[in-house]
Amino acid sequence: MVEQLVWISACDPPDDDIMVLVYGPNMSEAVWLGYKDGDYWREPNGAMLADVHYWAELPKGPDQC
């Protein structure tokens, strides 16, 4: 089965402290890991992320045999 990411506007953020994929057109990489911390988006190490436009839930990964 192929998983598809559903990108959601950052205007409708996930619950706080849930790790997700984030996208912003001015980020140095196409996609980052991040989470919402109150009013701010953060990287896993706690550094602030700026200019997040969209987020998506992390994929579940491959099924176990």
Fold topology:
Layout (H helix, E strand, L loop, with lengths): L7 E2 L10 E4 L8 E6 L2 E3 L5 E2 L4 E4 L8
Antiparallel strand pairs: 1-6, 2-3, 2-6, 3-4, 4-5
Provide the domain count: 1
Strand coverage percent: 25-35%
Whole-angstrom Rg:
12 Å
Distance between the termini: 13 Å
Shape: globular
Structural class of the secondary elements? mainly beta
User: How many helix segments?
Assistant: 0
Short characterization:
With 65 residues, this protein is mainly β.
Walk me through the structure.
Helices cover 0% and strands 32% of the residues. With 65 residues, the protein is mostly beta strands. Strands 1-6-2-3-4-5 form a six-stranded antiparallel beta sheet, with no helix packed on it. The protein has one domain.
Features:
globular, single chain, six-stranded antiparallel beta sheet, about 60 residues
